[in-house]
Amino acid sequence: MTDEAIAVLVRLTGRVQGVGFRFWMRGQAQRLGLSGWVRNEADGSVAALICGPAAAISTMLERSRIGPLGASVSDVETKSALAEGVLPGFRILK
Questions:
Q1: Domain architecture of the chain: domains with CATH
Q2: Quick one: pLDDT band at residue 90, thresholds 50, 70, 90?
Q3: Are 19 and 42 in contact (CB under 8 A)?
Q4: What dihedral do alpha carbons 42, 47, 49, 55 form, nearest 10°?
Q5: 0.85 exceeded by the pTM?
Q6: Predicted confidence band at 1 (pLDDT cuts at 50, 70, 90)?
Q7: According to a count of CB atoms within 10 Å of the terminal CB, is the N or C end of the chain lower?
């Protein structure tokens, strides 16, 4: 695999709100050196844009299937996104 940055849009469903998922995801992203954002959605899901090396994104997606203590992830949907313009760091959006 290459270290070239790629990006994916992620939608997580299940018990993913009210369990600290966004804060957990930010911590995981920072450990893996990923950029992007995460936010709660009105339908109860969590959405994220994750940008970085493919191997790190793969690790993040594997970890996201489990999530933090109290979470119960039923599905992780991903689709490719553009990596251009993603700011460094990982943010929690309101």
A1: 5-87 (3.30.70.100)
A2: very high
A3: no
A4: 180
A5: yes
A6: very low
A7: C
40 belongs to the catalytic site: yes
Q: Residue 66 half-sphere exposure, CB side, CA atoms within 13 Å?
A: 7
> What's the pLDDT at 8?
97
Distances (CA, A) of 57 to 12, 35, 66: 15, 10, 15
Element (H, E) at 24: helix 21-32
Could you identify the residue written with the tokens 């804060």?
23
**Whose CA is closest to 64, among 1, 13, 2?**
13
pLDDT digits (tens, 9 = 90+) for 20-30: 999 999 999 99
Which of 11, 39, 40, 91 is catalytic? The answer is 40
- Say whether 63 is catalytic: no
52, 63, 58: which is closest to 28 by C-alpha? 63
